[in-house]
Amino acid sequence: MVTLTIDQLRAQIRGDVIAPEDERYEEARKVRNGMIDKRPEVIVRPVNAGDVIAAVNFAREGGLDVAVRGGGHSVPGFGTCDKGIVIDLSRMKGVRVNPEKRTARAEGGATWGDFNAATNAFGLATTGGIISTTGVGGLTLGGGIGYLARGYGLSCDNLVSADVVTADGKFLVASEKENEELFWALRGGGGNFGVVTSFEFKLHPVKDIYGGPMFYELKHARDVLSFFREYIADAPEQMGAFPAFQIAPPLPFIPEKRHGDTFVLVVACWSGPLDQGERALKPFHDVAPVFAEHVGAMPYPALNSAFDGLYPSGLQHYWKANFVKELSDKAIGAHIEHGTKVPAMTSTIHIYPINGACHRVASDQTAFAYRDANFATVIAGMWPDPAQNPANIRWVRDYYDATAPYSEPGGYINFMAEDDQGRIKSNYKGNYPRLVDAKRKYDPDNLFHVNQNIKP
Ligand SMILES: Cc1cc2nc3c(=O)[nH]c(=O)nc-3n(C[C@H](O)[C@H](O)[C@H](O)COP(=O)(O)OP(=O)(O)OC[C@H]3O[C@@H](n4cnc5c(N)ncnc54)[C@H](O)[C@@H]3O)c2cc1C
Predict the structure, then answer these.
(1) Residue with CA at minimum distance from ligand 1 atom 43
(2) Residue 79: helix, strand or coil by DSSP?
């Protein structure tokens, strides 16, 4: 076997090939999590599937570690690696909508902002993340939780097909009809099975929504969380909402003297008829006085990008996650104890409901196994100053330890830290052996191991 040099690789690639001496290298090696400081040997920015094939072959033949980067949001920094090759899909962001079939095809490096901007023009959307800068790629491959999940399922439930470059450099189309086992594994199994160069999704008629954040004083936290637990169990499925603890940012609708104070909040997204929006959000106004809010009718992409400013690239990240079947009174007590101590304006804890349409998919129908969980919680530590790492990591760990006894053994892989690799098996429950089989078939030598890894 002949191993190519980087110059020979360059000759095969239409996109960019960035080596350490390139002036773009320092910027190109960064991922969103500012804690991650890795130096790949080469960064390839493909512009088409052919480039991806060349990059995968180069990695395999050269025995290099390979990190695949979609939106670069992975908290453990799986979008980069030391010494190996990074396949950074950020030049592949095209989104093509088929309004007649109500589908959209997004290239592997598109973000939810790219996706929603393209589909909103047709009055259509699918389940994506709650902020716009997250990658369609990583989010969908791990499952995909967002405002529309109760109504339309997880992002991966809306996947119709995927174009995939596998470890042997082959290009496969995966769908219910072709390469079905690969298609099954891609829907929750993360980046383990190949580089997805494009994702085809089902779309739904969602254009404008009614919603936004509602802030409550902390003394109402128990009422708000207990109410949310009961309400969301059988709320209309057009209601996507989650409770959170949050330090008030300096936003115009929050009185200035309360900036920096901690609140419990609910962020709601009503995707049903707009004229029912105010009535749909009434229960959140009845449970306790809303101290400050920014709710109303807006295009879906406006809510999807409303919090982007809070989470700039380069923050330090450390997260932990759990699936939860019952949000017991004791669990709520643990949330109140630790949520009220959220240490940074950019840190938060979200309790996402994953019932409704997510429950209508059987546990073994896709790799995403926790179809019996009602909530996915994320303790999202994000802060600007590396000097504050120990205190912030401590907060996340203490919070996690306090809520773990009331949670399932598994947590959503996309919310997990690198030190959670020991929990991967629990995350997939009974689906794990089948994922291992799929890994043996499509990536027997574990070329794609810079991820929440399923070992062949
Ligand atoms: C600020 C923030 C907000 C978030 N909000 C949500 C949310 O609302 N809902 C939710 O479900 N998750 C959310 N997440 C978690 C998110 O789903 C994961 O971080 C996810 O891995 C990000 O995908 P990415 O493509 O941006 O990341 P990357 O770091 O680029 O990739 C993450 C993983 O996916 C793989 N991957 C990415 N693209 C491809 C591809 N095209 N082909 C093959 N493998 C690929 C990578 O190899 C890596 O293993 C959020 C994360 C952050 C930091």
Answers:
(1) 195
(2) coil
